[in-house]
Each structure stands twice: as C-alpha cells, then as structure tokens.
C-alpha cells in the first residue's frame, strides 16, 4: 500500500464543509474512515466523520503523559430499542445494559487548507495536526495511535471506501497510489474482541446523566471526559470487568491534566494541548467569519510546547 499525503490531511479533519461550499450545500460525504466495526455502523451522538478509536493501552499512555485534554468519548444512538439504555432522553447503544463508547482525538477548529486548496478555512481538525504543514505532531512517537498508522489499510481490508478515494473524487489528484493489502491487519478489532480493548462499556448508566446530553450538544466538560477516560483505562480486554484501582488512577490523572475550560491544572504544566484547544475556539469565535493564516499555529501551539513537524522537503 502507498499513499500520497502531502497537502491532503483528509483523514485528519472534517473537510465536509468544503464540499457543501463548492456544491451548493447538497454534497454528501460517506462516513467510515476509521473504526468501521459493528459499533460504527450505528449513528454517533457527535458529528465527527473521521473519529480515531484508541485502545485501552493508548488511553493509558495519553493519561501517563499528561495529554488527557486531547481525548474525548464517542457514544452512539441505539439501532434497536432493546440494545440500548435511556439516558437524558437518548436511547444510547449498550452492551449488556452498559453504555458503549470509543475514546478518540478531539478536533478543535483550525485554519487549514486541505486537499490541495490554496486558501485556509476554519475546519474541525485533529488536535495534533499542524495547520501549517498538514503533518501530524506525534507521528512516529509513542502517542501515535495504531489506528492512524494502519489507515487506510483497515478500510481496504474491509473493502470500504478510503478517505484517499473520497479526496480524489472530490478534488482530483492521486492519493491512494497502491491499494494492495497482502494480509488482514492484526490490529483490526471487530465484534467481541473489541470489548474492553477498543469498545468500552460504562458500568453505571446513572453516572452518565447529563454527560450524554452534553456529548450530543458538543458541550462535554473536563469532568465528563475524565469519567470516560477512567472507565477506558480500567477496562479489561475481552470482558465487561473494570478495575477500581485503574479507574481511580485514570480519573485522577485526567483531572490533574485538565480542568473545565481545558486550562492546565496548576500541578501539571506538561501539556500544551488543553490551552491550545481553548485558544483555537476563542480565535474562531472572535474571527467573525474571517480566516487567519495557518501560521498563527506557531503562537497557539508551538509556542506552548507542541512538537514541530519536519515539513515535506525533509521526507523526500
């Protein structure tokens, strides 16, 4: 498999608004770039088309590195009446009465020019994507998710359309240069094997009252995310069991790295992520429709400690 990622970033952000802009608002973009398992065929409460599900060990690594502010949960609407639980007026997909969710990366608004465009637009963009180079700030580090490294191999193995192909169809150019996948990826977790490893199940639906409504409205608090991260960190692969010790550890680590508004807690100055996310949202609100240069990422992310990216010339 070979892909041409330079100037694209189609799998790292939601470029659907660009299609709607160029096609009179009638364009429809299929979902499913990541996590095309059974759960993802249900309708999520959020509207992220490229949600990247992390494994339990990856969630724990983010917590250990003080990067909890980068993570967020995804819940789904139940497909059948008997497969879900009622919370905040929503029938939420569940396993054995336990609300099911993924944990993935957040997408604050950033000024980006993806898929070969020359002018930037405000688009929901992966917290780790450098708007200037359209490269990942954590590529080839221990934080880089397996799901990202396996994309688009997973989609090809499942015979699903890739984001590369969607970009080609909408914007032209060649992105998916070689679609040959010799073997099914071992990291492709589907069905029962995903439980506790990628698909987490909250043991107490009552604890999610208010959280589900805020999730659907895009208003999750730091405490909401910490609750879900703690359950994910406490999960056991292949079972519905959770570890009380790891739950308390995960919740403590998450709350130590973020507070409401995503400002860093006073006892943790290791993460640039929370303050950068808050600043992107503030800039987007203050912009009143104007789109700044992607270069402002230097002040918002790099100056706060975000890793720099090599640029495309360095990869030639």
Question: Would you mind describing this structure in some detail?
Answer:
The structure is a single chain. With 316 residues, this protein is of the alpha+beta class. It has one domain (2-306). The protein contains ten helices and eleven strands. The protein has helices spanning 16-22, 56-64, 146-149, 153-157, 163-171, 211-217, 222-234, 244-257, 273-287, 297-300, and strands at 2-3, 71-75, 84-87, 90-95, 98-105, 109-112, 121-124, 129-130, 135-136, 176-178, 200-201. Strands 2, 3, 4, 5 and 11 form a five-stranded antiparallel sheet that branches. Strands 1-10 form a two-stranded antiparallel sheet. A hairpin with an 8-residue loop joins strand 6 (109-112) and strand 7 (121-124). Helix 2 packs across helix 7 (222-234) and helix 7 packs antiparallel against helix 8 (244-257). It is globular, with a radius of gyration of 19 Å. The two termini are 18 Å apart.
């Amino acid at each position: 498999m070979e892909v041409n990622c330079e100037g694209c970033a189609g799998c790292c952000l939601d470029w659907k608004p660009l299609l709607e802009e160029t096609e009179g608002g009638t364009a429809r973009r299929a979902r499913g770039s990541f996590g095309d398992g059974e759960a993802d065929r249900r309708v999520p409460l959020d509207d992220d088309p490229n949600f990247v599900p992390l494994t339990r060990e990856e969630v724990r690594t983010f917590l250990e590195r003080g990067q909890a502010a980068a993570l967020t949960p995804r819940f789904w609407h139940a497909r059948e009446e008997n497969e879900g639980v009622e919370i905040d007026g929503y029938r939420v997909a569940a396993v054995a009465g336990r609300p099911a969710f993924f944990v993935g990366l957040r997408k604050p608004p950033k000024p980006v020019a993806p898929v070969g465009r020359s002018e930037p637009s405000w688009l929901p963009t992966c917290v780790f994507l450098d708007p200037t180079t359209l490269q990942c700030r954590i590529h080839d580090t221990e934080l880089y998710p397996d799901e990202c490294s396996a994309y688009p191999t997973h989609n090809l193995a499942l015979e699903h359309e890739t984001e590369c192909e969607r970009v080609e169809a909408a914007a032209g150019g060649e992105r998916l240069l070689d679609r040959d996948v010799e073997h099914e990826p071992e990291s492709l977790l589907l069905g029962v094997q995903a439980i506790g490893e990628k698909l987490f199940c909250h043991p107490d639906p009552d604890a999610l009252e208010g959280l589900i409504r805020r999730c659907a409205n895009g208003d999750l608090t730091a405490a909401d995310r910490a609750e879900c991260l703690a359950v994910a960190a406490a999960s056991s692969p292949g079972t519905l069991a959770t570890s009380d010790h790891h739950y308390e550890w995960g919740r403590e680590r998450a709350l130590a790295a973020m507070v409401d508004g995503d400002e860093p807690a006073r006892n943790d100055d290791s993460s640039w992520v929370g303050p950068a996310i808050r600043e992107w949202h503030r800039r987007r609100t203050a912009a009143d429709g104007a789109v700044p240069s992607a270069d402002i990422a230097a002040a918002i992310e790099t100056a706060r400690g975000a890793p720099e990216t090599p640029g495309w010339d360095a990869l030639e």
